[in-house]
Amino acid sequence: MSPRVAIVGAGPSGFYAAAQLLAVGEPEFSVDLLDRLPTPFGLVRAGVAPDHPKIKSVQRAYEKTARHERFRFLGGVELGRDVTRAELLERYHAVIYCVGTATDRRLGIPGEDLSGSYPATEFVAWYNGHPDFCDHEFDLQRAVRVAVVGNGNVAMDVARMIALSHDELKITDVADHALDVLQHAAVQEIVVLGRRGPVQAAFTTPELREMGELDRADVTADLDGTDLTVPEDADRTTRDNVGLLREYAARDRSGKPMLVRFRFLVSPVEILGDDDGRVRALRLERNALVDGRARGTGELEELPVDLVFRSIGYTGTPVDDVPFDEARGLIRNAGGRVLDDDGAPLTGEYVSGWIKRGPSGVIGTNKKDSQDTVNRLLEDAAAGRLLEPSRPGLDDAVTWEGWLDIDMAEKAAGEPHGRPRVKLTRWEQLHAAAGIPARGAVR
Ligand SMILES: Cc1cc2nc3c(=O)[nH]c(=O)nc-3n(C[C@H](O)[C@H](O)[C@H](O)COP(=O)(O)OP(=O)(O)OC[C@H]3O[C@@H](n4cnc5c(N)ncnc54)[C@H](O)[C@@H]3O)c2cc1C
Ligand SMILES: NC(=O)c1ccc[n+]([C@@H]2O[C@H](COP(=O)([O-])OP(=O)(O)OC[C@H]3O[C@@H](n4cnc5c(N)ncnc54)[C@H](OP(=O)(O)O)[C@@H]3O)[C@@H](O)[C@H]2O)c1
User: Pocket of ligand 1, candidates 74, 99, 398: which has the most ligand atoms within 8 Å of its Cβ, to mutate?
Assistant: First the structure.
């Protein structure tokens, strides 16, 4: 019997693992790729910024995988809701978990849950039209100054999406509900806060450069008190980032209605609210760098802000009863083999992508990661160490054809407006376009 593999999660790591398994000549694997959404591509659809369409063209490689005769897409099937881990293990020779790390890391400071303090994870999902977030509200109309906490590329995406002009946004696939809110944002200043210095920033240079080329925002950087010495062994990104930030610090305002301000060596220690429980300020502590780490100096300041976007990284959550490493926010594994409580590899269970190694790395990083996992699976297959399924694979979900119907409807809606697509953002719209009655129900 040709071995069947269920891959849970149709993001980059899931698609790379599928392509790698389908490329094996002997045995000939068949692959069922499940996703809780009726739409594929994970964060390529729901994370990558709408004004970065070229990055999304990676989808073409995934579409090629999806056309393989031994591949099936089972959309709208959530592990832990529509299907259990035990059931997958009864139906497949092996399962690869590629579920990503969809939730936010917490700052762990007082006031974090005040109204107007948002995790970047939710803002990103909202402007990208993820159906779980379409009814979220972001109070940008009343906000004059907003803070973005974090110095990674997601923080850059968040700051830039607020700053982009309507003309820049209206040609993208940003969700319609977000287009409207962002157009009418009252924001005059976006303060990006790094806990360490410019040399330690995690963002990359193209993303930093874009911040200096916006239609409706000027840019500046407060570099007083920061150490701008680039270490001899620093990479090009660090060198170029520091050069660019120096240039931003020297720039005059050109009269654009918004300002993006980079500040460094500060950590939020409290988010302060008004009488209605809404964010009114951030209490910041000045940091010093000690052995490369941010250490509080005890020197405090209050920065009046109307909204706070917390962008300090993603983290994973447990899925069904798959063994989970709470401390690291990952599925417990060694090199992609899922481990039991005693640290022994479990038969037929594997993991790849952000939920295997943590929420960092670009789309391409997941290709090698999945290859490493698939290699472990192939070693186990060769040694006769996969599962012996007693039931057939799953059925009756949103199929690839269902997704193509969604895709066609979205592209057709975008075409008259010169947009790549207008996303369907509600579960019922997605199901209707895919031609299925309701969410869930497989078997
Ligand atoms: C905001 C943001 C912007 C980014 N921009 C870029 C960029 O411009 N360029 C770049 O190279 N990289 C970018 N990245 C990084 C890139 O998106 C990741 O490296 C990549 O998406 C990780 O792939 P993954 O398959 O591990 O997870 P994901 O892409 O998160 O895919 C996980 C999939 O699993 C599904 N799933 C989750 N739980 C279940 C369940 N219980 N049952 C079934 N399905 C489930 C989800 O619906 C999702 O489709 C960005 C990341 C973020 C957060
Ligand atoms: N255009 C693109 O290519 C693109 C776009 C978006 C995302 N991505 C990728 O996706 C991955 C995830 O991005 P990300 O931005 O979520 O994560 P990230 O790159 O890990 O950045 C997280 C940032 O949060 C800061 N931080 C963490 N804990 C903090 C705390 N308690 N207080 C203050 N700051 C804190 C970190 O500072 P420290 O360094 O001090 O820890 C860091 O600056 C990255 O690999 C990124 O490159 C790529």
Answer: 99
List phi, psi (to 5°) of 301. Answer: -145, 160
Tell me the CA–centroid distance for residue 43 and ligand 1, in Å. Answer: 3
pLDDT score of 398: 80
Which residue's CA is the closest to the ligand 2 atom numbered 27? 312
- Using omega within 30 degrees of 0 as the cis cutoff, is the peptide bond preceding 53 cis? no
Tokens describing residue 87:
């059931």
Distance from residue 419's CA to the centre of ligand 2 (Å): 29
The pLDDT of residue 442 is: 43
Indicate the DSSP class of residue 93.
Answer: S
The ligand 2 atom nearest the CA atom of 201: 43
Tens of pLDDT, residue by residue over 257-287, are: 999 999 999 999 999 999 999 999 999 999 9
Query: Is 33 in contact with 73 (CB distance < 8 Å)?
Result: yes
Beta bridge partners of 302: 283
Distance in Å, CA 188 to ligand 1 centroid: 31
Nearest-CA residue for atom 13 of ligand 1: 362
Q: How far does CA 292 lie from the centroid of its chain?
A: 27
The answer to whether 243 touches 250, Cβ cutoff 8 Å, is no
Cβ atoms of 70 and 369 within 8 Å: the answer is: no
Distance of alpha carbon 337 from the chain centroid: 24
For 110-264, where are the E strands, in sequence order? 117-119, 145-149, 189-193, 217-222, 258-263
Give residue 42 CA to ligand 1 midpoint distance, Å: 4
Query: Is 284 close to ligand 2, i.e. is its CB under 6 Å away?
Result: no
Residue 433 zone, left/alpha/beta (φ > 0; ψ -120 to 50; rest): alpha
Atom of ligand 2 nearest to the CA of 154: 15
d(CA 115, CA 106): 15
Q: What is the best residue among 32, 44, 48, 118 to mutate for testing ligand 1's pocket, by most ligand atoms within 8 Å of CB?
A: 48
Helix count (H) and strand count (E) of the chain? Answer: 15, 20
pLDDT digits (tens, 9 = 90+) for 331-374: 999 999 999 999 999 999 999 999 999 999 999 999 999 999 99
Interval 212-258: pLDDT, tens? 999 999 999 999 999 999 999 999 999 999 999 999 999 999 999 99
131 ligand 1 Cβ < 6 A: no
DSSP, collapsed to helix, strand or coil, labels residue 292 as coil
Q: What is the dihedral of CA 264, 266, 270, 274, to 10 degrees?
A: -50
Question: Nearest ligand to the C-alpha of residue 58?
Answer: 1
